[in-house]
Amino acid sequence: MTPPWRARSDGLELFVRLTPKSARDRLEGVETLADGQNVLKCRVRAVPEDGKANAALIALVAKQLKTPASRIRLAAGATSRVKTLHLTGEAGLLAERLEKLVAEASPS
User: Fold this and answer.
1) Structure pTM?
2) What is the mean pLDDT of residues 41-66?
3) Which residues of 58-68 are buried (b: 16+ CB within 10 A; e: fewer)?
4) CA-based nearest residue to 12, from 67, 88, 97
5) pLDDT of 78 higher than 90
6) Is there a contact between 105 and 74 (Cβ–Cβ < 8 Å)?
7) What percentage of the chain exceeds 70 in pLDDT?
8) Confidence band for 72, pLDDT divided at 50, 70 and 90
9) Spatial distance between the Cα atoms of 6 and 26, rounded to a whole number of angstroms
10) H-only helix segments in the chain
11) Rounded Cα distance, 49 and 60, in Å
12) Burial of 38 by CB count in 10 Å (0-12 exposed, 13-18 middle, 19+ buried)?
């Protein structure tokens, strides 16, 4: 399976499918969209108004990766469920952390 991220010279691009207004904030593993793209499924409690859900997504990913939120920015999909996050940092280390998170979040 292709991972839901792509290495860049200055970090990673992470592809996410966000569900706002959830019961709790969490990562739910990898999902394959109809077009074949793999995305990381995420849920946040925040509502999709005034960028609140996007900010909650960045905070969730930062917390899970143990990286500062200032190193994560929304690169695409501000008003869409499918988003691209740009994570600045060492791509190999970020990919390792994401692999671990995906393995923990995916149902057995």
Assistant:
1) 0.91
2) 95
3) bebbbebbebe
4) 88
5) yes
6) no
7) 96
8) very high
9) 21
10) 52-65, 91-105
11) 17
12) middle
Three-state DSSP class for residue 74: strand
Exposed / middle / buried, residue 46 (Cβ in 10 Å: 0-12, 13-18, 19+): buried
Specify the amino acid at residue 30.
Answer: V
Check pLDDT > 90 for residue 41.
yes
CB atoms within 10 A of CB 47: 11
- Could you tell me the fold of the domain covering 5-105? Conserved Hypothetical Protein Mth637; Chain: A; (3.30.1200)
Q: What pLDDT does residue 105 have?
A: 75
Average pLDDT (95-102) is: 90
Q: What is the dihedral of CA 11, 74, 39, 47, to 10 degrees?
A: 150
Domain ranges of the chain: 5-105
Q: Which of 69, 65, 71, 72 is nearest to 100 (CA)?
A: 65
